[in-house]
Write a structure and sequence with these properties.
The protein has 4 helices and 7 strands; from the N terminus they run βααβββαβαββ. It is an alpha/beta fold and 144 residues long. It has a single domain, classed as Gcn5-related N-acetyltransferase (GNAT) (Aminopeptidase), CATH 3.40.630. The structure holds coenzyme A. GO terms for molecular function: acyltransferase activity, transferring groups other than amino-acyl groups. This is Ribosomal-protein-alanine N-acetyltransferase.
Length: 144
């Protein structure tokens, strides 16, 4: 299921502005992910969260908020909607990967209760410069 009010083109443009620690997705890659069977996409006029729910696991694949509108609770609201919808679809745990160097996102996920559970070495390839490790984080999804 997808709850989207933003087109893949709009999402790609927003993500290209927001992503500084990893390459943004193309509009085509976003459209294909949104159209896939297990996709879960929630959007706000200034941001989006995209992932999938398979059986009892949710995975967040992309999250971005317009840099001009950050620190106003938009991502927190997006993630609340993402997690609640994932929970209603049967997920009991949500997983994500974040670049080890992405301090703002790591602080954000920690504020939401995500904990580091592992590391993927060299996960984020860069055109120039060394590949960056990804921190794997997870959170139990509970019914409030
Ligand atoms: C990470 C991101 C999605 C957060 O979006 P946001 O809408 O600004 O986040 P919120 O306003 O909902 O923040 C909620 C809480 O998270 C924490 N937080 C968010 N951004 C933070 C930052 N830059 N530094 C430290 N803590 C931060 C704070 O605890 C914040 O609460 P507060 O503002 O009351 O202190 C946004 O910075 C972004 O788009 N970054 C670029 C893309 C990216 O890195 N995505 C993640 C890919 S894994």
């Amino acid at each position: 299921m997808t709850i989207a009010v933003m087109s893949p083109d709009d999402m790609a443009a927003l993500q290209a502005r927001a992503y500084q620690h990893m390459p943004p997705w193309s509009a085509l890659a976003l459209a294909e992910m949104i159209a896939s069977a297990h996709a879960l996409c929630v959007t706000d006029p200034q941001g989006f969260a995209l992932g999938r729910v398979v059986l009892d696991e949710a995975e967040l694949l992309a999250l971005a908020v317009n840099p001009d509108h950050q620190r106003h609770g938009i991502a927190r609201t997006l993630m609340n909607r993402f997690e609640t919808t994932a929970r209603t679809r049967g997920a009991v745990t949500c997983f994500l990967e974040v670049a080890e160097t992405n301090a703002p996102a790591r602080a954000f996920y920690a504020a939401l209760g995500y904990k580091g559970i592992g590391k993927r070495g060299g996960y984020y390839r860069q055109a120039d410069g060394p590949a960056i490790d990804a921190l794997v984080m997870s959170k139990a999804l509970t019914l409030d």
